[in-house]
Amino acid sequence: MTSTVPPARTATSPSAARTPSAARTATTARTASATAPTARATAESPSPAHAFPPAFRWGAATAAYQVEGAVREGGRTASIWDTFSHTPGRTAGGQTGDLAVDHFHRFREDVRLMARLGLTSYRFSLSWPRVQPTGRGPALESGLDFYRALADELREHGIRPVATLYHWDLPQHLEDAGGWPARDNAERFAEYASLAARALGDRIDTWVTLNEPWCSAFLGYGSGVHAPGRTDPADALRAAHHLNLAHGLAVGALRAALPSAAEIAVSLNLHAVRSLSGHPDDLAAARRIDAVGNRIFTGPLFTGAYPADLLADTAHLVDWEALVRDGDLAEISRPIDLLGLNYYTPTVVSATRDTEGATRHDGHGESRHSPWPGADGVAFHRAPGELTAMGWPIDPTGLTDLLTSLHREHGLPLLVTENGAAFEDVVGPDGSVDDPERIAYLSAHLAAVHHAIEAGADVRGYYLWSLLDNFEWAYGYAKRFGAVHVDYDTLARTPKASAHWYAEVIRRGGID
Ligand code: FCB
Description:
It is a single chain. This protein is α/β, with parallel strands linked by helices. The chain is built from 18 helices and 15 strands. α10 (213-219) packs antiparallel against α11 and α16 (397-410) runs parallel beside α17 (436-454). It is globular. It binds beta-D-fucopyranose. Beta-D-fucopyranose (FCB) binds at residues 63, 66, 211-212, 215, 269, 342, 418, 465, 472-473, 481.
């Protein structure tokens, strides 16, 4: 791989471009340079009780629309998230990613911060409308230049870049042409993947096709709590198939464009589904959610077929025979190198009982429309455990369960491509953020990863969500997932106690 010196970029003032600044929480914090963590190598610090493999990737993740800002720069056009967030009533306080945390201009500072934390890898996403504004035709060099510079900066600091091609920001042009429910969208995605890989494949060796296609399909076109905000169960299922197809076509395009050593992955938010009881009706509910939440992706990806029970559950909604064309399943099941798992909380379900109605504690946002087509008789329950600021119960056993079952069933090397938690962080008088709950969450989940490794799962890395506080989709800026605090008035970055803690975990190569 080559490593060229990227062009210098200038920083913009945070105040003017922010939208809408008044709705954000004002906090004060010291700048990153004043508080940057240092890896304190002390001779006395003992080896960790739970050491991770030497080549384990210690990472953090972000996504383009959540951090970049600069939405009108360099020829970038609107994505469905620009349109959605600018539509009244769609996001908390009408907040948007117009400025986000200005990573587009501050990436060098952010990479320096990552280096001081000792991260060995950074997972970010490419903004499709920055790279290929209309979703068709040639790539925009100015957009590619940003990712070239970011990848080079990372590599110069010894941090391995991992590029996600699609983290939900479909060019609005393509949504106007039908979006994911339209088959052509899959072809468009493969073309974009090819352009990106040809331009960046010399400096990025790990590629994730899609982030959480479940959310794109079922929150975007089913419950409508995510962009583009459509609410048609049949369209949601069509979107799911076309996302699968897009992934498969993109794997082919990436293999053709990338050096043979490059690794290709997909990131799935598989649900750790638990039945409320052993009653057959509750077990049937869990089976339905596992089908439309998980196996709708793992089935075609790893076995080359949609599960028969999923097809039966949803036969009244879509004509699967017409939707899945000859050759599609062979495309979708092209071998990949790594499977990315995003995990936050388990999912507890039962059959709906008259007394409780169809409760929807599924953690995916309020809507009159369900994101679970073909699962009308299923109730979602709050899992036991403390809650994060998202209202998501904390239960790391779901992560061990998913990693071990994925290993058992599919045998692929695994990456935890997202895991983390939002809490009500408080900035202290000295500007520091003490976040013991986040440290406890991360520590317990890293222990869960370690358990899975001990049980034989080949887990190659862990990416904390998120490097920085950022635009949490429909929840806006109120939900802070960052290990690094961002002051939304000044955009100053301040590592929280959890960032210092993570730096120490990385330095020692494990946890106690
Ligand atoms: C995941 C998304 C990520 C972030 C976290 C909290 O579902 O991939 O962008 O919103 O949840």
